[in-house]
Amino acid sequence: MTISAERPTAVASSATPPTASGIPWTQRPGWMSQHLGTAIVGGFLGYILGHWFGNYISSSYPWIANSGQNPIAVTLALLGMVLGWLVGIGALNYPLAKIVGKEPPAEVEVEGWSKYFRYSTNHKVVGLQYVVGVILFMFTGGLLAMAIRTELLNPTTHVFGPGTYIEIVSEHGTIMMMMATSIIVGPLGNYLVPLMIGSRQMAFPRIEAFSFWIFMAGYMVIFSALPYGGFNTGWTGYAPLQTQNGPGMISYLFGFAVIGLGMMAAGFNIAVSIINYRAPGMTWSRVPIFVWSILATASLLTLATPVLFSAGLFGILDKTVQTAFYVDEHGGSSYLWQNLFWFFGHPEVYIMALPGFGIVAEILPVFTRKPLFAYKVAASGMIGVALLSFFVWQHHLFQSGINPDMRPLFMLTTELISIPTGFIFLVGMGTLYRAKIRFEIPMLFAMALFFNFLIGGVTGVFLSDVPVNVTVHGGFFVLSHFHYTIMGGLLFAFMAGLYYWLPKMTGMMMNKKIGLVHFWMMFVFFNLTFFPMFIIGLLGQPRRVFTYASNLQGLNDFSSISAFLLGISFIVFAWNLVYSMWISPQKAPANPWESLGLEWQTATPVPAHNFDRIPVIMTDPYHYSEVNAPALADFGGPAPVASDTSSTSNPA
Amino acid sequence: MANTSSNSPRDLRKMSGIWVVLSVAADLLFWFLVGPHVPPGRLTETAKNNQMDFNILMVIALPVLIGVWVYMGYSITHWSAKRNGPESVGGAAARSNRKAQVLWISITSFVVLFLAAFGTWALIVDHGSGGGEGPNPVWMPAGAAQAETAALNGTGTGILSEPGGEKVLPVQVIGQQWKFTYRYPTFGGFETSQLVLPANTTIAFNVTSLDVIHSFWAYQLSVKADANPGVNNVAFTETKGTGNFTVRCSELCGLWHGAMFNYGSVVSPSAFTQWATSTEAANAANTKNLPPFAWTYTPDANGAAGGYYPDGTVTPYSTVETYGAKQPAS
Ligand SMILES: [Cu+2]
Question: Cβ of A401 and B132 within 8 Å?
């Protein structure tokens, strides 16, 4: 492995930190430095400045002066907010210093809990920041889902007006999609990939930190839609409805552009890290299957997201400087948005599926005490899904009149993708075969994924069949289908991953009893919420409606009440987090699940530089229940006393 | 390690037995009890065919679902540490099994390719299966092309009888925030909010929009076609018996999307002709004020002020002015 030659084998983790006077003020401990607080102040000031400037340059244009709205001011305000937020947190210190030709001061790792509120380039800090970030997205999106199900309790008595209702639906969809792009790659990908490939860091730690803080900026941007009157296009944002919408639409378009930047940054950094930062001996056939899934996902993030970014940018230009990308009357095309959106949107679907497959395939061997079955099939399946996912997008547009003659082709590609997707079942069932299965909480969630994703996958085949699509497109059937794949797949995998890896990440075990209550409530009520929606959809209820046929009230009420109980299962989860991490923390053993994975072979808590010496990988991590199994890696002797201080230099 | 290979085939035999029994039972129950009632019913030839497609998919899907469920259920009940399952065995034999892998990939590939071929066949023989086929449909029912041309040129009247003896009726569906209206080009192009169709006739729906994207979903007819401004999206169906059906908008189109629905009916051809001619006469004064029949109409961004169609004067395009200005469909 040539890559090992450049890597130091020792680090000066014990070197004395520079004295307080040597640290730039931005990085000092204490509140007189750059942290979440300054980011909020920066965002606030940037917003005001941007809004003022937008009004200053554009308020005299006739089409703005008479409208009572100024999309240019809104756009510049949001731009100012995001820039202010980034300046406030310190994301731009390094690049700006470089631009003006100054050597930026070396970053100092702040100790203690306050590092979680700072621009940290430590992948373990970023991973935990992402855990909190995605949970914030998840709970706000979930609350909106509760509001939707409340409105649908009765077909004629309304809790919300139709305008408020459709804004809630749109916010729910957008926030959840934004969350789902990052829910596993962000927290678990960032935290675990370096540990699993035997690296001390990511390839681009600043880009990694940037991806988190811009992700959180996206959260603020998408919520800024509410004071602007929301947007009523759903998460798909179809033009010309998009063009018709008020300034809330700008929050949507700008929000996706901002989140898109984060997705590109995260994907790029992780893909490069996996390719270049594997420890010596970690050949492609020894890479953990979770890392394979993250590599496939990161590639999709890097390649598909630019399309979303550009699509959002075009929309903003249409609404501010009166271009006509999506305006039919002026030479644009509303079909263009549909094509661009789904050209991103379908790879996006697999961005939200592959990491889940990776997690279950990674933890199944641990709890079955068997090697992963058909490792090569699993890895090639993930890559196959990633490639094919770029060739299926028009199945979202079967009834749209776009390219109608190509429907057989897209039906074929869509059904073909179920072959590599089906590999996950081959792998799962082969690994389960005659195993002594340990039903710990992570294993329960992993098994639930197989149950849920099977239903989600099979109903996907119904949707891909054009004749059947006539009935199921645009209704509750497809809504249920993608909740079965995203929530039933990805979110269950996220929970499996959290229960499995949080002991490593925090040093504390999650409580098993509360975990059992959480799992069973979530599993049962997830299915009771969404299964009836298949029937509701077949019986003719379109998506995103606030009123429906009165004969469907029974099914809708059943679904709503199950949804409320499903919501409570998330409170149980939150309680388990609080209880296990703060109220009654149980110290986790170094390797509670007796895993062979490389990430479990370091100490808990993970040392600052992950591995005192870079391990030399000897084999793959799946030699469970094997007589004379080879050792996973050569970890070398105890670390030599730090002598090579040059190795502390910061990565650029 | 005690009981390894000798018991393996027994596990699989047991599972296969359970799988076959459950699959056959589920398929038969579904096909005979549920199948005939599967949406969208049998009001049109299209609906009948699409119901058949759904049922065939279901008969294939049920054994797949049951197969995985039986395997998972069996592994939970027989192979867990709690129930003292067999000891896990690692090593090369547990890592891969050429036979199992080849079998799995072959079966899934075969099923998938069969489904794609079957879906394509159904789509083509059923003339687009009731889905939107764009402005220039390639899979048209006999006589539809002539009927469409006659409708546009105003050279046909009533339910058109084509040379081959086919009866075809062109109907235009105009989506607008937030209702559907219908124009009957072979009855003088009158416009109405009622959708009435003759039985035993091929219907050519020409779906377009005046503002945003809607989707015309005639549920029991099994017709769904997006209504795009500036696009004529054509969908075909062949009515059989008489009956009522629901029309809903199935593409989010703004504030009152949820309230965008109405009802239609399929009546006997003579009753239809009577209804159409009397409505044509009653609406004659209004029809004169409508723009001449066309496949598409230029959307009017200021529709609230200018009515459904442009009034001839060019209204400047505005991104904001129409938002929320219109009232829901009554
Ligand atoms: Cu509509």
Answer: yes
pLDDT over 90, % of chain A: 69
Domains assigned to chain B: 8-125 (no CATH), 144-287 (2.60.40.420)
Helix (H) or strand (E) holding A110: none
- List B residues 95-154 in contact with A (Cβ-Cβ < 8 A): 95-97, 100-101, 104-105, 108-109, 112-113, 115-116, 119-120, 122-124, 126, 128-135, 137-138
Lookup result for tokens 């699409």? B50
In the prediction, which pLDDT does B299 show? Answer: 54
Instruction: Determine the Cα–Cα distance for residues A348 and A332; give it in Å rounded to an integer.
Output: 25
Contacts A450 to B, Cβ<8 Å = 68, 72
Mean of per-residue pLDDT scores for chain A: 89
How many Cα atoms within 13 Å fall on the side-chain side of residue B179?
A: 15
Locate the chain B residue with the closest alpha carbon to A401. B134
Q: What is the mean pLDDT of residues A291-309?
A: 94
Residues of A in contact with B119 (CB under 8 A): 408, 411, 415, 464-467
Q: Do A240 and B211 touch (CB under 8 A)?
A: yes
* 8 Å CB contact of B248 and A540: yes
Q: Which residue of B has its CA nearest to A165?
A: B255
| Distance from chain centroid for Cα A61 | 40
Question: What is the C-alpha to C-alpha distance for residues B197 and B216, in angstroms, rounded to an integer?
Answer: 15
Residue with tokens 């890479």: A287
- ipTM of this predicted complex? 0.88
Q: Which residues of chain B have a CB within 8 Å of the CB of A403?
A: 134
Domains of chain A: 127-583 (1.20.210.10)
Interacting residues of B244 by C-beta distance below 8 A, sequence separation 6+: B220, B263, B264, B265, B266
- Tell me the C-alpha to C-alpha distance, in Å, between residue B90 and each of B12, B175, B276: 19, 63, 76
pLDDT at residue number B328? 33
Distance separating alpha carbons of residues A401 and B308, to the nearest angstrom: 23
Chain A residues in contact with B299 (beta carbon < 8 A):
240, 328-329
| Alpha helices by DSSP H, chain B | 8-29, 45-78, 92-95, 98-125, 144-153, 269-282, 284-289, 303-306
